[in-house]
Each structure stands twice: as C-alpha cells, then as structure tokens.
C-alpha cells in the first residue's frame, strides 16, 4: 500500500499538471463547433465596431482594455492579505487577470450618451484585502446593450451582465421560454456562452414577515444568479466571481471560455466556497437568491427579518474562491439532465440544467431522468450525487442504472406551497459540478395558497459556563406545519454543531462576558429562520431556565359561540402573544400586562380580531414572546 506521503505527492502532481489548452474536443451541448461562435478576446483582440455599443467615453467601438489600465493578480505580498494586484504585467505570469473579460449592463440611464446603469464595482471591500486596487480605472471592458439579440455575445464575447429590474427572479425561474426571461433562453443564450446573467430578486424573495415566508420561486435554476438587494448587490456578486476568474491559471481560463463553461465553473466556485459548516449538497449552498456581501444583509429597503440565515464572512468566501482558482488546473465537470419519461405530474419545462413540474393537491409526481449526457472535457470518469435540498421529505430518488434516476414525490397534505428541488451533482475525482435540478412545485393555489410558516426556536437560548469547561445547548424548533427542523452554523462562528447539539469549550483565558452565536434553522420545505445563542462566561453561574416550560393552552379547541375563551397560562410576566390566521396574517396582539389581572401569568383570547369581529372556525397560530426574547409557537383551534 502506498504511504500517505506518496498519495499526497501524486495528488499534488496531478493537480498542478499543465492544462493542455485546445487539446480537448468541444463538448458544449448547444455549441459543439470548433472554433466556437463567440469572440475570444485572448486569441482575437481586433476591436469591435457596432452602432449598438455604448461604453464609458466610447460610442460605437469596443477594444480590449489598455494594458496600462489592467490589474494583474499576484500571490500575497502584504502580510495578512489574501489577494493582491500589481499594475504591470511580468514575464512568466501564471494568473489570467481581467484583460479579456467583458461586462454588459442591460440597463441604461438618462445621460448623453447613455451609459450603463451600473458597473462591476471599482473595488472589493473585504477586511483582508490589500489597499492596492484599481480605483476608477476601466479595468474591464464595459458597454450597454441587449446581448440576446445582435450584436450579442458572439460579437462582443460578453462574460458578465446585469439587469436591475423586478422582471428577474421568479419570472425567469418559473418560465421555460427560449427568451431572456425564461430558463431555456438564459441557459442556451448566456450560460453555455460564458455569460453570467444576474439580477436582483426584489419581490421574488423578501424577508418582510417574521412569521411566514415570502418566496415566489417555483424552481431553483442553477444557470443564472439572483442577489438579495438591488443593483449594487448583483454587481458585487459579479465582481467576486470576476476576481476568482482573474486568479485562474491562464490556460485554464482560456480553455473554459473556449468550451463555453466558464460561468458554470464560477457558479460552482461561488457555491462550494460559501463559509458554512455544511456539505456541498446542503440547501445553504444552493439558494434561489444569494446575499453577495455576506457581512451586510440588505434583502429589502425596509425592515427585514432573518438576517443571520443569509449572512456569512465575506472575506472568508472571497479568500476561498481565490485559493480554489489559483490551483484550478482541472476543469470541473458539467451535469446535464434529460427527460426519460414523465409518468405523473404536469411538466412546465425541461431543459438541460433545470426542469420544473407542477404537483396538484393529492397528486403523486413520478418522473425518470437521465444524467448520461453529463461530461468532463478532459475525459475523467464521473460519479454522481443526488440530494433533495428542499421540499417534500418523503421524496424518493432511486438509481435505475445506466444514468437513469426515478424521482417519486408523493402527495403530502401538510406541505405548504413550496418547491421540491432534487439536485444532481457530477464529480470528476477533483471537483464537483454546478448542479442540474429537477423541481416539483406543490401547487394548491386553486384552493387558496397555503402559507409556509417559519420554524420557531424553542430550545436552549442562554447558558453560562465556567472558563475551561464545556457548555452544551440542546437545540429545538417547532415547525407549524409539523416538519422536522435542521440546524446549521457559519464557519467563522465559535463552537461545534452536531445534529441538534451545539457545544463550545470555553478557554481558561477567556475574557469574561457574553458571547453570541447565530444558529440557522430550516424546516426543509423552504421555511427558514434563525436564533441567537447567548453564552455567559462567568465564575458565578445561575442555572438556565426554560421560561415557557410550564406554558399550557386551554380549552383547545375553544367554542367561542358558547362564550368560551382560549387561555394561555403559566406565563412569566410582560409576555406578548400574536395570533395569525391560516394565511399568515396577524389578526390580534394581546399583552399580559393589559389583561384583567396585569401580569397575572395568563393571556386570554376571546376569539375576536383586532377590529372586534369574531373569527371563523379553524386553526390559528400563536407566537408567544417574553421580554428576554424567548419565543414559543403553537396552535389554537376555534369552534363555532
């Protein structure tokens, strides 16, 4: 048996072998011609002249960025920085740089001449970046236009594009049209031509409500990129991926562009490098929309909720992408799906990287798909992983052999309206792929949309620990629809998480005080929330108390036509209860301090809404809150 040192040495040789550019046949599923139809600026730097071109200070012609304006990535020079750039190229340069990247804004403004609405940013603001940067220099080719129609990508070789409009997000994911607002159009006319189409989710995914989800995506479409926020958010995501591409070895980046798989690679890197303590197949890495600056979540322009579920250490993310790019001498594989048979379920569309089916109430969906069209440009053998990242937990994915997989999504009356997303990931022994996804959307809209309530945390929230000892939190969450909740943590946060248990060993030299750790919560059906654990380091500890351990509701159900009231008892003082109807609308708020006996340990509900009207028969959800921030959720049944 080979020693571990020998294995590591052989692996290092394998990873550092030169990428033999142009030695591989083009395997692009839409454009197998060699040479490809799109402009490759590294082999053809001839300026492009076209009346549709509008660029900063330049109308009608697009030329390669002047060498004097380019920034060349270098290995770390300044201690404590993870990337650095120099203003002049040098003999033997090993990183590709930005020289041949092109950005197009599909939005304009009112200036004369009209210029792009937004640019890829002039600098990255991670906390470990060297201050040497490009400032306002036009380091990347840029113009405004419509890249789907002529002159398009073929003529200009566009790699990144953004559009600040609400006609993005779910509008694209839910449509299979061969157009700029459909998944087939994006996949065929951008993704497999090296162009990343990005936009802000805006109304598609918002965090306005602390009780229910606002998520209009019926499908997770991995061929394009949505950000949570507005223009600045989407182009910041493009900036980070452009930086990662700049650190690739020259031959790798050239071959990825020649093959039309540059964007598939960048999207894979984005997902694989997100700093969460979770595997690549985790739902955290495969979102319908991403925050792009992990340190500053701005999902909406007004009050928002669930911040910590989206946030992460931005510098860790960028640093991991740079580190991966530097050693990428092997191209990641490409996963493709193909419809074999649709046995039950209504097909909305079926493309090469994304499919969408509709599932009606009481209906089982069963489809057979194949991944046998997937490929690796260097001919490496592929293995496949599959995972149900969200949706119906009873979904069955079985390997039928020969690259075929059978997906069975049974009926489940407890499900809210949500997508079941099954991802397929190819692995070539070095890298995973950007996934291909089969989505099944549970659609009860004909009977009234079923709200997806957020899970509510009910476990340990605040514990104390002596220096030098370990503290253990038992994590629990209640999902109003009854689904099992999972817990996650971010890589940069202290402690360790295993299943439903969080532990942290307190150093003996710790500074006494309070420490907080955000815990991310998912009910598996796209319902998410988060909580904050508080750890008190002290030499005089008080035992932790579950404030709601003795809370009870009675009578439940309550017959309000007979004069009964629903009571929540054994409260701890100054508690508040919010009551919501089946659509997730808040209908009443009651305070313990305003009861007949103020802070007497009970809140009583007479079955009326905030207008004084008696509510109808049905199930109502309540959220109980204490002054310390603890929460408890439950259901109240009303009879009439």
How would you describe this structure in keywords?
disordered N terminus, 9 helices, alpha+beta, 5-stranded mixed sheet, 37 strands, 640 residues
Question: How would you characterize the overall build of this protein?
Answer:
- This protein has 640 residues and is α+β, with helices and mostly antiparallel strands.
- It is 13% helix and 30% strand.
- It contains nine helices and 37 strands.
- Mean pLDDT is 85; it is low at 1-17 and 125-138.
Q: What's the quick description here?
A:
The chain is of the alpha+beta class and 640 residues long. It contains nine helices and 37 strands.
Instruction: Estimate the global geometry from the Cα principal axes.
Output: globular
Class by SSE composition? alpha+beta
Order of adjacent strands in the largest pleated sheet: 6-5-7-8-11
Mean pLDDT: 85
Helix coverage percent = 10-25%
The counted number of beta strands is 37
Distance between the termini: 76 Å
- Count of DSSP H/I helices: 9
Low-confidence stretches: 1-17, 125-138
Radius of gyration: 27 Å
Taking the sheet with the most strands, its summary is: 5 strands, parallel
Per DSSP, what share of the residues sits in E-state strands of 2 or more residues?
A: 25-35%
> Assembly type of the shown chains?
single chain
């Amino acid at each position: 048996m080979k020693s571990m040192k020998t294995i590591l040495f052989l692996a290092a040789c394998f990873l550092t072998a030169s990428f033999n550019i142009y030695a591989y046949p083009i395997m692009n599923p839409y454009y197998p011609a060699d040479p490809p139809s799109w402009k490759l600026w590294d082999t053809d730097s001839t300026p492009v002249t076209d009346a549709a071109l509008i660029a900063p200070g330049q109308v009608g012609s697009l030329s390669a960025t002047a060498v004097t304006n380019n920034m060349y990535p270098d290995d770390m020079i300044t201690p404590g920085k993870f990337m650095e750039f120099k203003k002049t190229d040098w003999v033997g340069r090993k990183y590709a740089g930005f020289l041949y990247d092109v950005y197009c804004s599909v939005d304009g403004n009112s200036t004369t001449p009209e210029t792009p609405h937004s640019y890829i940013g002039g600098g990255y603001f991670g906390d470990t970046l060297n201050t040497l940067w490009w400032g306002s220099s036009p380091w990347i080719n840029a113009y405004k236009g419509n890249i789907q129609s002529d002159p398009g990508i073929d003529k200009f070789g566009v790699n990144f594009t953004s559009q600040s409009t609400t006609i993005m997000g779910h509008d694209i994911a839910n449509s299979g049209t061969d157009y700029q607002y459909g998944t087939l159009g994006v996949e065929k006319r951008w993704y497999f031509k090296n162009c990343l189409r990005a936009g802000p989710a805006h109304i598609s995914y918002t965090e306005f409500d602390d009780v229910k989800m606002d998520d209009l995506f019926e499908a997770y479409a991995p061929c394009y990129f949505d950000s949570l926020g507005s223009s600045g958010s989407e182009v910041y995501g493009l900036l980070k991926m452009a930086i990662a591409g700049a650190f690739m070895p020259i031959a790798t980046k050239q071959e990825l562009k020649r093959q039309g798989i540059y964007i598939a690679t960048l999207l894979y890197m984005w997902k694989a490098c997100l700093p969460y303590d979770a595997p690549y197949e985790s739902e955290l890495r495969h979102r319908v929309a991403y925050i792009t600056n992990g340190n500053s979540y701005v999902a909406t322009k007004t009050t928002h909720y669930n911040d910590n579920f989206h946030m992460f250490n931005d510098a860790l993310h960028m640093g991991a992408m740079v580190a991966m790019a530097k050693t990428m001498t092997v191209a990641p594989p490409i996963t493709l799906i193909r419809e074999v048979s649709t046995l039950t379920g209504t097909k909305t569309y079926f493309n090469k990287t994304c499919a969408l089916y509709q599932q009606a109430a009481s209906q089982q969906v069963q489809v057979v798909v194949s991944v046998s069209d997937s490929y690796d440009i260097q001919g490496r053998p592929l293995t496949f992983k599959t995972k149900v990242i969200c949706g119906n937990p009873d979904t069955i994915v079985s390997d039928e052999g020969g690259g075929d997989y059978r997906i069975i999504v049974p009926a489940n009356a407890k499900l809210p309206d949500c997508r079941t997303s099954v991802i397929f990931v190819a692995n070539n022994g070095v890298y995973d792929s950007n996934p291909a996804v089969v989505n099944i959307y549970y659609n009860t809209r004909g009977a009234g949309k079923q709200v997806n309530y957020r899970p509510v945390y009910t476990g340990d929230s605040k514990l104390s620990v002596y220096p030098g000892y370990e503290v253990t939190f038992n994590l629990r969450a209640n999902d109003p629809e009854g689904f099992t909740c999972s817990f996650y943590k971010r890589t940069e946060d202290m402690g360790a998480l295993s299943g439903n248990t969080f532990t942290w060993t307190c150093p003996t030299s710790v500074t006494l005080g309070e420490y907080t750790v955000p815990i991310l919560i998912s009910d598996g059906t796209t319902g998410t929330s988060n909580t904050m654990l508080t750890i008190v380091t002290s030499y005089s500890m008080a035992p932790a108390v579950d404030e709601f351990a003795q809370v009870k509701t009675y009578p439940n159900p309550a017959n309000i036509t007979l004069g009964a009231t629903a009571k929540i008892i054994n409260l701890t003082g100054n508690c508040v209860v919010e009551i919501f109807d089946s659509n997730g609308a808040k209908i009443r708020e009651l305070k313990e301090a305003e009861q007949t006996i103020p802070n007497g340990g009970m809140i009583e509900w007479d079955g009326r809404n905030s207008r004084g009207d008696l509510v109808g028969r049905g199930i109502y959800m309540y959220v109980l809150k204490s002054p310390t921030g603890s929460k408890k959720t439950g259901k109240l049944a009303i009879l009439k």
